[in-house]
Amino acid sequence: MVTPPDIEAQILRFYHAEKWTMGTIARQLHIHHSVVQRVLAQAGLPRPGPPPRPSKIDAYLPFIGQTLERFPTLTASRLYVMAYERGYRGSPDHFRHLIACHRPRPKAEAYLRLRCLPGEQAQVDWGHFGHLQIGRARRPLMAFVMVLSYSRQIFLRFCLDARMENFLRGHLAAFAAWQGVPRVLLYDNLKSAVLERRGDAIRFHPTLLSFAGHYRYEPRPVAVARGNEKGRVERAIRFVRDAFFAARTFADLDDLNAQAEAWCNGFAADRRCPEDLQRSVRAVFAEEVCLSEMRRKRIGQRSGTAGAYRKRRVCCHCRTTRRRCSNSSRSRSTRRPMSASI
Description:
two-stranded antiparallel ribbon; 5-stranded mixed β-sheet; 4 domains
C-alpha cells in the first residue's frame, strides 16, 4: 500500500520538529507503526531500537566470512566445530541462528517459461513407488511416465524394474495410446538413455539410439541438475503420486496398470490444462492430435516395421542377439535364452 505524500510529510515533521515517538505518531495519525518505520527508513534514518550488544561471535566474524566466501554451502555445524577449535564457547543453537544471518544469499535466478508446439515434445522419466512383495521376492515398483509438453496428456505404466526392456515397452505403449510419436523426447540423465556425459559431450545408449532412429524422433537429454528443464514430467509424477497412487488398492500389476489407464483417460484428462485454464487437458489433447495429423499419418505408414522391436531372441550371457553371439552354443547347452518382448 502506498502512503499518501501528505501523511509522509506529517510523519517527518512530527518526528523531527515535534520530537514525537513512532508510537505517538501512529496513534495520532491512525496508521500502523510499521508505516511510520518505513517512511523514516526511506528518509535515511537508522532503524529504531536499542543499540546492538556485543556478542561472543564478533571476534570470529572475519574468519566466518572468509570461510563462507570460499565454501558457501558449508553447514553451520561444521562451522561451529571450526570456531570452537579456535576458542569460541557460545551455544551451538545460537551459533546456527547467527550463521543464518551472516550466510551469503545466492543470487536469484530467472527462469524462462518454455512453450512447445503441438506434437513437438514429450518428457520421459521414471518414478519410484515403493516395493511389491511377490512370493518371497521383494520387487521395486517403478512407474514409466511420459507427458506431452503441449497438452499435458499423461501416459502411465507400472513395471517391476527400470531396465531397458520395460523402458522401450513404455515408449511403445505411449505411442500406441496417442497414435503418434512426438518429434523430440526429453530424458533425464538415466542409464537407459545416457551412458556417459562430460560437459556437452554425450554418449547415448546404443539401443535407445536405434529405437529412436526406427521411430524417427530425437532423443534429447536435459542438463545435469536442471530439473526445471523437464518440469512437466516432474510435476506429473508428483500428481500421480498424490492423486492416483495414494491409498490405492490393487490385486496385481495388471490390475494396477488397468486402473492407471482408466485414470489417465478419465480424471487426469479432465483436469484443467495449465497452459489454458479455460479448457481441459482432454480438449487441448484433441486439438494437438488434429494439429499434428500429418505426423501421425507418416508414423502410421511405418507401423508395419515395428515387429523388429516386438520380439527377438537374446543371449542370456552377453545380451546380444543369438545370431551375433559367440556363446550361442553355450547358451543352448547350458541355459535357456531369454525372450525379450520390447
